[in-house]
Structures are given as C-alpha cells and as structure tokens.
Backbone:
C-alpha cells in the first residue's frame, strides 16, 4: 500500500488547519470532541477513500463529517455529566438541616497545579 505525495500534502494541510482548533482551551467538550473527531475522521476517510479508487477528497469529507458528529455527541455527554453538579440536597450541620448543592470547581494548588474539587455550597436564605 503506497500513498502518493498529494495525499500526504492533503493530510498535512488538514492537520495544520485543525491545529488551532484542537489547541483551543476555552471551548466546551462538545466543540473539542467535534474538532478532534472531525480531524481523525478526515484522515481515516482520506486514507480509505484513496485506497478505494482514488477518492481521497470525498473520503476525507465523509469521514470528517461522521467523525465530527460522533465527537460532538461524545463531548456533549461529558458536558452533561459536568452540568449535573446542581442538584438540591441537604445535610446536617450542628443539628440543623441545611440545603445546598455540590459543585465541581477548578482549584489551583500551592504548587501551581490545577485540579478539580467537589465542594458543598449552602443556599443563602
């Protein structure tokens, strides 16, 4: 199986175009999943299309669309899990029932490392 120079150029160009999208840290998991899935799908679709009679561009387009959709669905599930944080609960503090909810918060430690921490947030009454 040999892949021509034009296929390598197409794949390399696609990777260069998608690098800023994949590197963005301010997007949601849905967006990152769509971008990553689209990139992987485009590469795999391009290779499969090339090996199926020289249809590199069509394969890359179809693979990119399917990969983006799949990645977006997976990323959306991650976002939904993170959003479940607000559920009204109660606990007892000093013998009194206190209502509130748990949240996941990103905290920076004393060494500068970031981590996620689950914290109790009481309701203000």
Residues:
């Amino acid at each position: 199986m040999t892949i021509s120079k034009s296929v390598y150029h197409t794949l390399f160009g696609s990777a260069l175009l998608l690098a800023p999208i994949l590197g963005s840290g301010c997007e949601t998991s849905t967006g990152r999943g769509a971008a990553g899935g689209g990139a992987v799908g485009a590469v795999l679709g391009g290779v499969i299309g090339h090996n199926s009679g020289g249809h590199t561009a069509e394969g890359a387009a179809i693979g990119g669309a399917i990969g983006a959709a799949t990645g977006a669905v997976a990323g959306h599930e991650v976002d939904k899990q993170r959003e479940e944080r607000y559920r009204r609960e109660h606990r007892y503090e000093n013998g009194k029932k206190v209502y509130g909810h748990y949240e996941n918060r990103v905290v920076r430690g004393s060494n500068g490392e970031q981590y996620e921490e689950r914290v109790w947030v009481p309701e203000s009454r």
